[in-house]
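Schema walk-through. Below, the input block comes first and the output block second. Nothing else is stored per chain. Lengths vary across the set, and this one has 334 residues.
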Amino acid sequence: MRHVPALTSFVYGIRGLAWLQVGKPTRRLSTAGATVTCHLLALTLFTTATADEPTRHSFFIAGPTFTGIIGEDGSEAWNAGPPAARDGYVLSGGNVLIAWIDEVQELTRDRQVVFQFKRSADNREIGTAQRLENGRTLISELGPKPRLLEVEPGGQIAVEVALAPETDNAHMQTRMARKLSNENYLVPHLLAFKVKEYSPKGEVIRELATDLKELGGREAENWPFTAIRLKDGNTLVNLTHGNQSVEFDAAGKIVWQASNADFPDDKPFADPCGGQRLPNGNTVIASYGARDEIKIFEITRDKKMVWKYTGPHRVHELQILTTNGKPIEGPPLK
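--- output ---
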C-alpha cells in the first residue's frame, strides 16, 4: 500500500479556508463544509493509492518439478515432496489433497498422510481428486475401465460411475473431473472434443462441444482439459492444444473467449491446462507448455493481464490461495 504523505496536515491545514474552488464557479463554503470536502478528497487519494498496489498471489502448484505452495514473494512456502502431481486442493483446514499418477494423498503441513487411495490394478492412471462436501473424495481413474469414484475417508469405494471418453488412450481420456452442486459430474474428454455432464447413474445428460467451427474445428485441436461450472450456469473450459480459454452458456454457445490473439506481445497461452475463476471475475490460467515464459497468468473480463508467474516451476494445475495477504473466499472454482 502506497503511503499518502502528510495526509493529516493536509486535512487540517485546509480547515481554515473560507473560500474553496470546486470546478466552476467558485462558491463560498463554511469551515465545516471545507472539512467535509477535504476528508472526501483525502479518501479519494487514499483509495487511488490502494488501487495502484500491484497484485500478489500465493498459490498451490501441481507440476512436473514441484508440488506445493508458492508464497506471495515467489518463494517455495511448502513442498509436498514428490513432484509431478496431476491435481490438488488446499483444503479449508490447511491440509493438502494431492493426486499423483498412482495414488491420492491428503497431507498435513508436516507431511503426515491422513488419507490415501491407490490406483486400482484395472487401470493405468489417476487423473484428478476433489474433496466433496460429504467428506468423500472424488477420484478419476483412466485406463481400460475409465471411471469416477467417490471414496470414503477410510478408503472404501462408495460410488462408481463409468465414463465414456470415446478413446482407449488412457492418458487422453479425461482430466479435471468435478462433482457439481446438483450432484452431477462435469468431465472434460480430450479426444472426444466434449465436456460431458453425467448423472449419478452415469447417464450423459448434457454435452458441450469444443470442435465448433468458430473455434477452428477439430484441426485446431481444442482438447478440453479443465471445465469449471460457474455460479451463473456457464462453463469455463481451457482448450489445451488449441491455446484458448472459452466460456460457454448452458446451450453451448460461446459467450467469452481469450487466446494469444488477444495478447500478441506476450502470447501467454502455451498448452493451457489448469485454471481458476476468481471471485472478482478474473480468470487464472496455467500454461503447462511454457518453459522460460509466463507459466501462470491472470486476465480480466476485458482481457487485460493483471498478474503473471514466471518462476522456475511449470504448472499442470493450480489454486490461488491469497491475494495481497487476503485469503480467497468461498470454495475455489477450479
